[in-house]
Design goal:
By secondary structure, the protein is mainly α. The protein has helices at about 1-20, 25-30, 30-50, 55-70, 75-100, 100-110, 115-140, 145-170, 175-195, 205-215, 220-240, 245-275, 280-310, 310-315, 325-350, 355-380, 385-410, 415-435, 440-465, 470-480.
Length: about 475
């Protein structure tokens, strides 16, 4: 597991650094409204495609593990090919609807029918992105971190190269960035299909599609709910406030998502590890839970580092019109720490137990709570209303996730240590908040913030016997040894 996590870490870290290094360029040439338009583009198509995929990609991945254990690669090829082509047929039917009603959808999102071309582009991008993410997940399931890392790296690089070219040479704004994303993803998709051509049989076996649907159908209502759950706050912000507010939120999410990226890349190694190691053997499960606790502690430390230096990062990497985003970043990171620390194990428990119906209930609760809170808080607190709603609804949905995961597959998780980690993190985050509001010399502020990080590491060692230095040394040693 460690070898794969390190590879995922390096490629995600490197591409994230490149993206952040280019933020001064993008914020100089693009306005908050441009970023708002890009946010809608990245929201509509991918969410629509995720819903109408009917959960078949999850079914393919679930049966991959089963066929792998039973050495039935040929059967998986038939199932994979059938699901892949069936989804493509569904996507084409939905495209006809989107194309014919693009003006109505444009008016709904932008209060202007002239952006119908953006709606159509967004959907096509969603189709391409869906299949790329499917291949990414397949690489992860195969524990082929090297291929995943190469494809992910070049996809990010190509998207920036094409985007910068369009913005500088053709004087495009948000559409320059959009065109760059579409072209780079098309290239990666065709290469992914080519190197996985052995998995395709060239026809649809309806019996295998039905078998996959029997597994995934409990998640179909959940996907429908997730469409609104993941987008309702952004839609309400754009309609109640403005597209520019959505652009500011998008910038804050770019910084805040560093924390989500961290837990996601850990999850890429954690999920196969969990699926392969978990069993009825309590001793083996205890080892899994110890690793889980270590992951939460490491994640909290990384998140605190991002919270601590969020103000400096936003001020250094963006133009003045985006500087107000730094406090949003801190709140977003707090939300990610709490919710992702719970779901990284709860979703795997539910997935392993084949109880996907529980995710529908949790998503519905999250949707209802988040929508009600947004309707009350956005008119009063604007962008901050969105983030506060996310935190509160995230805490509630995490409680439900934990309950249903334990019901599906009980694990003796040390809740005391998890709660203590959250309390420590929030306490030190408050210290950072108050420090940011004092007018101190720059070097004094940096010194105090570094001191906060070291104090946090001291408390981690005191409460959890967690030696940060030894863990880092261990990672470096194994990286050099195994890679």
């Amino acid at each position: 597991m460690l070898k794969h996590i390190v590879r995922y870490s390096y490629v995600n870290l490197f591409t994230s650094l490149i993206s952040f290094a280019l933020l001064p360029f993008y914020t100089a040439y693009l306005s908050p409204e441009d970023f708002g338009m890009i946010a809608i583009f990245l929201l509509f198509g991918p969410l629509l495609c995720n819903f109408f995929s009917l959960g078949l990609s999850q079914a393919s991945l679930r049966y991959y593990y089963e066929f792998k254990k039973n050495n039935k690669q040929e059967e998986f090829n038939f199932l994979h090919s059938s699901n892949f082509l069936f989804i493509l047929l569904v996507f084409f039917i939905i495209y006809l609807f989107v194309f014919n009603f693009s003006k109505d959808l444009s008016f709904f999102f932008f209060k202007d029918i002239s952006f119908d071309f953006l709606i159509t582009k967004s959907y096509l991008y969603g189709v391409i992105l869906y299949y790329i993410n499917y291949f990414y997940q397949l690489f992860i399931a195969q524990e082929n971190s090297k291929t995943y890392s190469i494809f992910y790296f070049f996809n990010i690089i190509f998207s920036h190269v094409f985007s910068i070219f369009f913005i500088l040479t053709l004087d495009l704004t948000f559409d320059g960035r959009i065109n760059g994303l579409i072209i780079s993803n098309i290239i990666i998709l065709f290469v992914s299909i080519y190197i996985n051509k052995r998995l395709f049989t060239g026809f649809i076996n309806l019996n295998l599609v039905i078998k996959s649907l029997k597994f995934s159908y409990p998640n179909i209502p959940n996907s429908f709910i997730a469409i609104f759950s993941m987008s309702i706050d952004k839609i309400l912000l754009a309609k109640i406030s403005s597209i520019s507010s959505l652009g500011i939120l998008d910038i804050a999410n770019r910084f805040g998502n560093l924390s989500k990226t961290t837990i996601d890349l850990i999850g890429k190694g954690w999920t196969p590890y969990f699926m392969n190691k978990i069993s009825k053997d309590n001793i083996e499960n205890e080892k899994v839970l110890i690793n889980y606790q270590n992951i939460v502690v490491i994640f909290s430390l990384l998140c605190l580092g991002l919270v601590t230096f969020s103000l400096e990062l936003v001020y250094f990497l963006t133009s003045e019109q985006f500087h107000s985003a730094y406090l949003l970043v801190q709140l977003i990171v707090i939300n990610y720490l709490i919710t992702q620390s719970v779901t990284i194990i709860s979703l795997n428990q539910i997935f392993y137990a084949k109880k996907l119906k529980y995710t529908t209930v949790v998503s519905f609760v999250n949707l209802v709570v988040n929508t009600i809170l947004c309707l009350f808080l956005i008119p009063k607190y604007n962008i901050y209303g969105v983030v506060i709603s996310l935190i509160l609804s995230g805490i509630i949905s995490s409680i439900f996730y934990f309950y249903f995961a334990q019901k599906a597959m009980y694990l003796n998780i040390n809740l005391k240590n998890i709660f203590l980690t959250f309390i420590l993190f929030i306490t030190f985050s408050l210290f950072v908040y108050f420090l940011d509001n004092f007018e101190l010399k720059f070097w004094v502020t940096i010194f105090l913030k570094i001191l906060i990080i070291f104090l946090y590491m001291y408390f981690l060692k005191k409460f959890f016997k967690f030696n940060t230095y030894e863990e880092i040394k261990y990672l470096i040693k194994n990286y050099v040894k195994k890679l």
